[in-house]
Amino acid sequence: MISIVADPTRNRILRRLDEAGKAAYSDLLDSAEHIRHLTSTGNFNYHLNFLLENQVITKDGIVYRLTEKGREIAKFLKEVDQMWNKLELTLRGEKMSVSGWAERFEEETGTKMQKTSSKFHGFELISDERRVVGLIAQEDCNSEFFKDYERLRVKNFKLQVKHSEKEADKCAELVVGHPDLEYYISPQLLGEVYQFLSTHFNEAHIYAVKKKPFPFLLRAAELRKDYDGCAFLVAPCVF
């Protein structure tokens, strides 16, 4: 298997077919173009034929697809990528920037993030296009802004249906509520952020201000405890 995936051209062909399900020759050639530095089309054909001969891919008319063997190899590549993502920062001895975490969050959840940060109570925040979810450096959670935040138990959150009281906007909305709060959080955003933190840091904690509506704070450790990562602010739903 290692000999099959070691070459970057073969690797890119496999990834493209795994993403698209099927692809024509020209599509595969284009997808490998950026890694074929000064190589010829003949070189690309050599790697394509190598995959065909080793029954990693198959040709059906004018399109190529992965075989069962090819799908197993593509799965292996994904697992390697996931392991590398977790090890990369440790191996480099570096800390990923908030913008780096924002890019990863966008890639994994599909939530479009702004490319530039803005100031929010004195610290940098990168928000999504609707300005309802934002990422901050976890050390910024030590700011005075968060002094009234208290941890909420996840098991106490309940899914509810709330009806808007505004005459011009009568509708029902699915929200997640907590008995200590008079405001709510979007179940979609809660799910995306909670899963993201749990996946990358193995835990997630939710904080809120009980007295009045404030952005929810989600982070991968208790307040005042540091870790190499980001934290999230999620806008509340108020009715």
Question: How would you describe the overall organization of this protein?
Answer:
The protein is α+β, with helices and mostly antiparallel strands. It has 2 domains: 2-91, Winged helix-like DNA-binding domain superfamily/Winged helix DNA-binding domain (Arc Repressor Mutant, subunit A); 98-234, no CATH class. 38% of the residues lie in helices and 22% in strands. It has helices at residues 2-5, 8-20, 25-32, 41-53, 68-92, 98-109, 187-201, and strands at residues 23-24, 57-60, 63-66, 118-120, 123-127, 133-137, 150-152, 158-163, 172-177, 184-185, 205-208, 216-219, 230-234. A hairpin with a 2-residue loop joins strand 2 and strand 3 (63-66). Helix 2 crosses helix 3 and helix 2 crosses helix 5 (68-92). The radius of gyration is 23 Å and the shape is elongated. The mean pLDDT is 86.
In short:
By secondary structure, the protein is an alpha+beta fold.
Spell out the blueprint of helices and strands.
Layout: H1 2-5, H2 8-20, E1 23-24, H3 25-32, H4 41-53, E2 57-60, E3 63-66, H5 68-92, H6 98-109, E4 118-120, E5 123-127, E6 133-137, E7 150-152, E8 158-163, E9 172-177, E10 184-185, H7 187-201, E11 205-208, E12 216-219, E13 230-234
Antiparallel strand pairs: 1-3, 2-3, 4-5, 5-6, 6-13, 7-11, 8-9, 9-10, 11-12, 12-13
Helix pairs in contact: 2-3, 2-5
